[in-house]
């Protein structure tokens, strides 16, 4: 039985709540239970109980996780812990007890058995709690998507405060003229904008990849593939809690900060905030002279020299931005072909998201 069905059967959530969580899962990723907790529909302890009932495996409680055997943690190592999303707990009666986000993953259990040379006894742990302990025990930072500003961690400890959204100056802002787009058209691929790095996919192939995507990751990967050879850098941001969170990206230069660790406030004045608030394409120089948000982003992307103009394209679902597509070229302003094609890809992404949400609700 699926988790959503189990929760509905026991009246733990309503159908509208389940549909909302499925929608968020399509847009923001994570497991269904994670999205239910983030939306406040159930708490982490109740989720743990239902995961145990659904899978038939015991719960890995916080007290047990706190006492995880350091020798086993060292033997597993950071990379495998992150890849498999598992935390070895203890050895007892010749078996290794392991907390797993998915205790039904036979392949992961087999790999763990080979690594430890012992039979594996799985127990279940919710994704949010697993990520908290992977960070605590292995020093693995959570992706920005799993850090909610102003809320508590899986253990009830306050999250590290992020900069919250700031208000616009009372006098308002003078923004550059809007870039007006013609209605969407299917066109042949434009010539590469960067001669040194050939595009890895054509514009048409990127269109097809987004139109036929079966997962959200395929949508993001299409944007990144399109960016290679056409931009110096591109980042697909998730929009949550008044922040732009890095999801996928490309940079022609070695990154200073992993894309997944980027978290930029949508406050003050920035090209990202302008696109978020207006729902329209931004192309031009950043609107504020100090450019604190853009400077933080350029530092992470190792942009040198700083770009003269930037491009930000929104992906809207029900008129609300769920992604911002940021792109720049260091040596030149964004070409009209780049602006038009990225805008078209964003519209296609909107359609694909809506299709994936409908499919998720129909399962």
Q: Strand share of the residues?
A: 15-25%
Q: Write down the CATH class of one domain.
A: Alpha Beta
Number of helices: 14
Q: What is the third-level CATH name, the topology of one domain?
A: Beta-Lactamase
Show unreliable segments: 154-195
What does this structure look like?
The protein is of the alpha+beta class and 363 residues long. It has a domain at 203-362: GAF domain (Beta-Lactamase, 2-Layer Sandwich), CATH 3.30.450.40. Helix content is 40%, strand content 16%. The chain has 14 helices and 9 strands. It has helices spanning 3-9, 15-28, 32-38, 44-55, 62-66, 70-76, 78-84, 106-116, 127-138, 203-211, 216-227, 271-278, 292-300, 336-362; strands at residues 86-92, 95-100, 120-124, 233-240, 243-251, 263-265, 282-284, 310-317, 320-328. It has a 6-stranded antiparallel β-sheet, sandwiched between helices. Strands 1-2-3 form a 3-stranded mixed β-sheet.
SSE topology:
Blueprint: H1 3-9, H2 15-28, H3 32-38, H4 44-55, H5 62-66, H6 70-76, H7 78-84, E1 86-92, E2 95-100, H8 106-116, E3 120-124, H9 127-138, H10 203-211, H11 216-227, E4 233-240, E5 243-251, E6 263-265, H12 271-278, E7 282-284, H13 292-300, E8 310-317, E9 320-328, H14 336-362
Parallel strand pairs: 2-3
Antiparallel strand pairs: 1-2, 4-5, 4-9, 5-6, 7-8, 8-9
Which terms would index this structure?
Beta-Lactamase, 363 residues, single chain, alpha+beta
